Amino acid sequence: MTESYLKQQKLVTHTWSPDGQFVALSIKNTSNADIYKIGQLEKIGTWQKVSTLKDASQQINVLSWSVDNKILIGSDDRSVVVYRNINNQWSKDLVIITNEKAILSGEWAPNGQKCVVGTACHKAFVLFFEEKNNWWHNQQINCFYSSVTACRFHPSGRVVGLGSTDQTFKLVSCVIQENMNFEDQTYNGLFKDIRTFGEILVTINLNGWINSIDFTQSGNKFAVAAHTGLIKQYSFNEDGSLIVDNEDKNATYIKETKPFNKIIYLNDSTLVGVGYDRKPVLLSSEPTLKFTSIIEKCLAAEGEVQKSGSIAAAKQMFSGKGQKTEDDKFGHQTAITCINKVSDSLISTSDVNGIINFWRI
Amino acid sequence: MAAAVQVYSDAIRKTLEATLCLRAFPSEIIEKQSKPEIELNGYSSKTRQLVLSPIYLCRSEKEKCVIEPSINSTRISFSIKALDEVDRLIGEKFAKYLAVRADYFEILRRKPIPGYDISFLILDSHLEKYSVQGIINFIIDYVENIDKDLSDIKLNINTQARITAACFVGGLANQ
């Protein structure tokens, strides 16, 4: 029932709760965000809808679940909404944001105290909560010539990586001066001494629209995926400066066929990319970026192959019946638009046709 | 001859596979709207980063194709080979016949862009409904068969003209 509903209503993106018990789905046709309680992970039919967030009037592009159980929603109707879970009810906070166009990308900071959204009006906004006014206020980052299509916080929470359709990636500081207590005081790694807002630390031109950015958990490397099929990985020095023009440290992977939509680091040495090729691609990121393998079978396909025994398969073959390939029955028929890490060895991907697949690494 | 068309259609296929990586993208000019960026190209300087350079594939001086990609739409235009006036007339009529029925084809543009005989406009919403390979196969099918279709029409015209002329001259001779 849930599966057919998703296929009919279409999916934009999905995100998991911190405990992995719930998933929020952005439904394209209804412009709502549905929250489901997971029954059996890979069996979508066992998922139960527990609530619906209905405040957007157009497609929800941004759906992010913070570590302290807040949900960030950004929509094509240029609205940004932050929901808190109070006594199992989702209530929305007032958000003050001065954007003029659609929200394209967004994410919570690692400690959940602030968030960043990228918009089609060539700006990015960092939102933080003002307790005295009980609203989310914003500070804007205005350094791009085109839409901000990718954003990701560094593990320190003090800098944010932003990518745009003007083909540049920028690393920008985002420490809110009035609220230093938003920052993680126990953090002791790169950028711990950053105290400014809006300072551009790094600018990189990649000759293609930036589709996705991710940092490693340790924060000493990051990768950027461009629409030219390129993924470029950069390393930081110990003082936070970027190592550039060093082919040993900066690795490039070029995909000859189709570009990646999203990339994530599973750990410091493994990167997964998904996109128009409809299957996740595993890359190793140490010492340099190198293709490892394509994950051919999703979890659903593995289960099905185990069930149909060799006799049944042989019967079908000799009877001349056209056996559907696994690509037809399982996997994605259109480009993968979203990827999330479910656990250390499991990722989930979704496409616009409402298909959610799980892949074992 | 078939080999020459094959090379041309293979080049178009590979280019389309690369340029049909589209995504839904809201307009940077009009809020709450989504427009094909390739059609708005030149309307505002703000959106010029969203449109890529056009790719020209020429089989000969008269037979060519231009593929104009952008972030959420791709426009493909073809120029049909016309060796004489009859070929030009047939090509025009054929293209007009298809363009009038553009609604049925969905990906067909009602009016071809200047300098070309037929144009296709493919949006990200088309790729959600139809498979990319299906759309590419449809366009390649058109490219590979258009010459044959037009020469069949020309042959028919010549045959009918010959029969008509024979009847007319026969009638005159019998008088």
UniProtKB/TrEMBL annotation, chain A:
It comes from the Eukaryota. Keywords: Cytoplasm, Cytoskeleton, Repeat, WD repeat. It holds the Pfam family WD40. GO terms for biological process: Arp2/3 complex-mediated actin nucleation. It is found in: Cytoplasm. GO terms for molecular function: actin filament binding. One of its GO terms (cellular component) is Arp2/3 protein complex. This is Actin-related protein 2/3 complex subunit. The lineage of its organism: Eukaryota, Sar, Alveolata, Ciliophora, Intramacronucleata.
From TrEMBL, chain B:
Coiled coil: none annotated. InterPro entries: ARPC4. One of its GO terms (molecular function) is actin filament binding. It comes from the Eukaryota. Keywords: Actin-binding, Cytoplasm, Cytoskeleton. Pfam families: ARPC4. The keyword Chloroplast does not apply. It is found in: Cytoplasm, Cytoskeleton. One of its GO terms (cellular component) is Arp2/3 protein complex. One of its GO terms (biological process) is Arp2/3 complex-mediated actin nucleation. Functions as actin-binding component of the Arp2/3 complex which is involved in regulation of actin polymerization and together with an activating nucleation-promoting factor (NPF) mediates the formation of branched actin networks. Seems to contact the mother actin filament. Belongs to the ARPC4 family. This is Actin-related protein 2/3 complex subunit 4.
